[in-house]
Amino acid sequence: NESRIAAQVSAAIATIEARVGERVRRGAVLARLDDADFRLALERAQAQRDALAARLRLAETQLERARELQARGFFSPEALSQRDAEVASLRAELRALDAQIAGARRDLVRTLIRAPFDAVVRERNAQLGELAAPGSVLFVLTDAGAPEVSAAVPADDAPRLSDAASIEFESGGRRHPLRLERVSPVIDPASRTQEARLSFAGAPLPAGAAGRLLWRDPRPHLPATLMVRRDRMLGIFVVEGERARFVPVPDAQEGRPAPAALAPGAQVVVAGQSGLQDRDAVVPVEPPAPR
Q1: How many helices (H) does the chain have, and how many strands (E)?
Q2: What is the pLDDT of residue 290?
Q3: How many other CB atoms are found less than 10 A from the CB of residue 66?
Q4: Among positive and negative, which fits the CA dihedral 98, 99, 100, 105?
């Protein structure tokens, strides 16, 4: 799994803390952006809040005093309503400033570019002093957790993968046993494949290793050499009462072994099948004894 780590605020890159190929822990700082403007914005908003909070305290004191005077008949209802409105307005301004401060703090935190998970730095696009714009990719990370193999499996073969007796990943001339984790139910319309995710049963290979997926289907298969095409279908001939009967094999593909459910003791024609037609007479011949 890869993740493209992008800047979320606009600022110059002040320091770069991670190198290509380095392993980093979740939360580790990869780079620091110049935070001077963000600190000033936060300090300015906090100062404005302090001043506004002082004004609100004064207005609340004046409102309380006005209520006492109004109860004694020394303050008009209209003037009291005006004091009420002033306090409500100041409270609304204070809430808006609190939101502004929260945003300024969030932007300040975003000047630290951190790793979202344990990873290996695969690419570094950040350059010291360069202006990082929101959305610009600074690093590409590869998950350093247990690696998985992602394989595009033909949709016709995907159901067989779950029943496979063994699954291996062949890379660099060596085979590595795998465990099937999941198969995506979605079929790619262009390639007619489904994505399979598998984990290593033993020592994993480095991220980015390429190879091919091998698995052993537990069902008995017929060799591709026995297949013949009749009426646009691939199949085999079996012997029934000294006559050949053509048996279509639905899952057969040209040049590949195909699974076939045959009755126990069924006799399959293994020689001369190319010239046979359904119901032709045949004479079974015992194979020559081994020398």
Answers
A1: 3, 18
A2: 67
A3: 19
A4: positive
Cα 108 to chain centroid distance, Å, stands at 29
Residue boundaries of the structural domains of the chain: 2-140, 148-216, 221-275
Q: What is the distance between the alpha carbons of residues 214 and 153, in angstroms, rounded to a whole number?
A: 11
Give the residue ranges of the chain where pLDDT is below 50: none
Q: What is the CA radius of gyration of the chain?
A: 37
82 vs 107: CA distance, rounded Å: 38
pTM: 0.57
Q: What would the DSSP string read from start to end of 93-109?
A: HHHHHHHHHHHHHHHHH
Tokens for 136? Answer: 């610009």
Strands 137-143 and 131-132: unpaired
Cα angle value 32/208/200 (rounded, 5°): 115
Topology (CATH level 3) of domain 2-140? OB fold (Dihydrolipoamide Acetyltransferase, E2P) (2.40.50)
Q: What is the per-residue pLDDT across 54-83, written as a single tens digit (0 to 9) for each?
A: 999 999 999 999 888 888 888 888 888 999
